[in-house]
């Protein structure tokens, strides 16, 4: 495994995104299956409750994981022209862990939602010695 | 690079929120895997995705190795005027791939 490289913890990764600002639990709807068979492609959808107007919209949506070799998953940049603060993609999960979705609104607030996912077949790392 | 698939409705009513989907063929090699010879396979990922509507950026993404191979993204946009929606993917070797779709707004 990759124990020679230390990754930031989930909390550190979140702090580097928010700049240490307070994160409130809510407004973010995080759709991810609680049990996935294949960690190589896990569908996720993040939807943030926002009117998406010029005055009040979601600026960024970020995804972070707890136990992959790297904490970052993706950062999406949105604006009022998006119309709806909803993003879907497919991610990799190396093992069973927590995944956090964060949203930064145009007023500078941070909102989040956390999900715990059990992975039965991991991604990223193929360790032949354990086979 | 390789094949890119984008999905944009051909027509929309003005002000309607449309769904846009984009996918590109790419290994998204994490850089955390060992090859058969025990040597790490070097990282090769798409780092950035940008979508522009009528020349103005409406959505972009920074991607990391935790994004699955053949990155798929779905997001939305307000159908504001008839025009072209362009897509651009850039990988960590600096290679870019583009795609575009036209939309008619009534």
From TrEMBL, chain A:
Q: Which residues form a coiled coil?
A: none
Pfam families for the chain: SoxY (PF13501)
The record places domain Ig-like SoxY at 16-124
Against NCBIfam families, the record matches this protein to:
SoxY_para_1
- Official protein name in the record: SoxY-related AACIE arm protein
Q: Native species of this protein?
A: Steroidobacter gossypii
UniProtKB/TrEMBL annotation, chain B:
Q: Which NCBIfam families match?
A: SoxZ_true
What does UniProt list as this organism's lineage? Bacteria, Pseudomonadati, Pseudomonadota, Gammaproteobacteria, Steroidobacterales
Q: Look up the domain of life of the source.
A: Bacteria
This protein's encoding gene: soxZ
Q: Which residues form the Sulphur oxidation protein SoxZ domain?
A: 9-101
Q: What is this protein called?
A: Thiosulfate oxidation carrier complex protein SoxZ
Q: Origin organism of this chain?
A: Steroidobacter gossypii
């Amino acid at each position: 495994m990759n124990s020679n490289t230390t990754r930031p913890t989930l909390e550190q990764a979140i702090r580097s995104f928010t700049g240490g600002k307070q994160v409130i639990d809510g407004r973010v709807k995080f759709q991810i299956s609680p049990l996935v068979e294949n960690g190589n492609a896990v569908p996720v959808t993040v939807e943030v409750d926002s009117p998406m107007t010029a005055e009040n919209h979601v600026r960024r949506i970020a995804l972070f994981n707890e136990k992959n070799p790297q904490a970052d998953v993706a950062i999406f940049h949105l604006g009022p022209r998006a119309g709806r603060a909803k993003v879907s993609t497919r991610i990799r999960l190396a093992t069973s862990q927590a995944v956090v979705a964060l949203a930064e609104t145009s007023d500078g607030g941070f909102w989040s939602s956390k999900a715990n996912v059990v992975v039965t077949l991991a991604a990223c790392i193929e360790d032949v010695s354990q086979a | 690079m390789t094949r890119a698939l984008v999905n944009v409705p051909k027509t929309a009513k003005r002000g309607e929120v449309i769904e846009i989907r984009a996918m590109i063929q790419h290994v998204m090699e994490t850089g955390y895997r060992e090859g058969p010879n025990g040597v790490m396979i070097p990282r090769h990922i798409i780092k950035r995705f940008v979508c522009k509507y009528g020349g103005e950026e409406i959505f972009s993404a920074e991607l990391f190795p935790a994004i699955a191979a053949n990155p798929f993204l779905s997001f939305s946009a307000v159908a504001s005027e008839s025009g072209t929606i362009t897509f651009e993917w850039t990988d960590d070797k600096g290679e870019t791939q583009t795609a575009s779709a036209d939309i008619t707004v009534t």
